[in-house]
Q: What sequence folds into this?
């Protein structure tokens, strides 16, 4: 009897001391995505060092967000859009309009499964969570967040860290029309009516009011757009076109032509094309 009791205790102790690692699966395991390494403490420290308001700690759990109307969406995210404007200089009206449009007013399929409110794809260097979604092509990799507020912060980092958007920050932070047209020029979206859609949302729902009441920091640093910056280069291969290169690097054909001072779309095998300035 004593031996059985001892054996039972050993089993209980052994089981309780083991930790089961939960396997993470995605919608299409056959596709290779970026390595998931999220250093939340590093992100919080970086925000503090940059003088930004630090976001609340990520709970590590995916939170489904239900929005009943456009007015509910604006009420829910207008404050964080203003915080982001103060910290990064991106008009709150633009951020809100992009959030509304890209997320389908918070009801879109991508937003529902990823909390990605800005349609930001994984891109090279993304080390966060991700999922796959059909967009310009089938099964593209999109960034995934546990809460939409992290999507808003990543949107700010995305625009300020990519050199092709640097010229936007020369515009006044309340000039939403120039920002809307500039985002399209920089290749944020392939929809030719993208600027008009943003401007229409801003004016219909008076989103510009959130710009006028927000004071912007004067020490905002964005990626350089000068031609002396280090450039990412694509070497033209057989079958390449400006259009195929633009889709590969998420940049518009017009921006590729501007970066490379091209008057036409002709390419030669071996030609080096600037696809982004770092």
A:
């Amino acid at each position: 009897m004593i031996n059985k009791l001892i054996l039972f205790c050993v089993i209980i102790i052994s089981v309780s001391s083991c930790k089961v690692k939960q396997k993470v699966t995605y919608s299409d395991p056959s596709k290779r995505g970026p390595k998931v390494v999220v250093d939340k403490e590093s992100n919080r420290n970086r925000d503090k060092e940059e003088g930004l308001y630090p976001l609340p700690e990520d709970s590590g759990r995916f939170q489904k967000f239900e929005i009943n109307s456009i007015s509910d969406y604006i009420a829910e995210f207008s404050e964080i859009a203003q915080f982001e404007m103060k910290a990064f200089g991106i008009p709150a009206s633009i951020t809100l309009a992009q959030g509304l449009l890209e997320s389908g007013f918070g009801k879109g399929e991508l937003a529902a499964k990823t909390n990605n409110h800005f349609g930001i794809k994984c891109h090279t260097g993304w080390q966060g969570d991700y999922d796959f979604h059909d967009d310009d092509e089938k099964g593209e990799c999109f960034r995934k967040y546990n809460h939409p507020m992290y999507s808003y912060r990543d949107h700010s980092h995305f625009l300020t860290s990519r050199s092709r958007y640097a010229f936007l920050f020369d515009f006044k932070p309340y000039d939403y029309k120039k920002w809307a047209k500039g985002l399209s020029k920089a290749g944020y979206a392939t929809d030719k009516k993208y600027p008009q859609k943003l401007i229409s949302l801003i004016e219909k729902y008076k989103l510009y009011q959130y710009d006028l009441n927000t004071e912007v920091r004067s020490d905002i640093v964005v990626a350089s757009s000068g031609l002396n910056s280090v450039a990412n280069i694509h070497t033209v291969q057989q079958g390449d076109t400006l259009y195929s290169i633009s889709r590969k690097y998420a940049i518009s054909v017009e921006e590729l032509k501007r970066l490379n001072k091209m008057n036409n779309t002709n390419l030669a095998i071996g030609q080096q094309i600037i696809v982004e300035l770092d």
In short: The chain has two domains: 40-212, 231-277. DSSP finds eleven helices and four strands in the chain. Strands lie at 130-133, 140-143, 231-235, 272-277.
